[in-house]
Amino acid sequence: MHKFHVLIIEDEKNIRNFISKTLSSQGYRVSCASTGNEALSLATSLCPDILLLDLGLPDIDGMKVIRRMRSWSNCPIIVVSARTLELDKVRALDAGADDYLTKPFGTSELMARIRTSLRHSNPNGNGNSLPCHLYRAKGLKIDFSKRAISINEESIHLTPIEYKIVAFLAQNSGKVMTYSAVMNNVWGPYNESDNKILRVNMANIRRKLEKNPAEPVYIYTEVGVGYRMADDEENIKL
Ligand code: CA
Predict the structure, then answer these.
(1) Residue 152 phi/psi, 5° resolution?
(2) This prediction's pTM
(3) How close is the Cα of 56 to the center of ligand 1, in Å?
(4) What's the DSSP call for residue 71?
(5) Cβ–Cβ under 8 Å, residues 89 and 98
């Protein structure tokens, strides 16, 4: 059986060992780097399936590692960092990181994020992630081929813009999408930098989808960063 290969980039030995043990016990193959330069050279020689990246490294900043990786590789990168500022998250995601986890984190949260990122980078890995499949979560169903949305079989009417936003988030379900990623996808690269129009649309979407828009169960807000859609139920089993 093919084992997914994870490269852990972390200079703190205790955290590195902890993540490494956890992943090994879950059936992953693990390699470790304690500096950014070591990580870049291992990433080139080992071609891992996914990178777990600390930002505060002794030689070069993790942000630089993301940019250097992205110049030649699509390998998923999950940032695992003590930096909790929204701006740090936005920068890392916009530089090409796939996800962002702040320390301290729970093991099950880390495992879920890894599965989600691997699913996106291996769309045929579990045979059910063709781009035109259905999205299903908690009674919400999206049929991408018909552009139809329903909740508990009752169809929901969205405007074309609202549909584009929801479809984009659903196709990236489980992952946080920054405001600018959503804006670029829906309105194109020359959109206004102000994300007010997105927030207005999201308020309308939530009124239509959520029982209680203040406590959403389908589309979560990552404050100051963007949105994350509930993971597709088909894929949680992966
Ligand atoms: Ca560190």
Answers:
(1) 50, 50
(2) 0.69
(3) 4
(4) T
(5) no
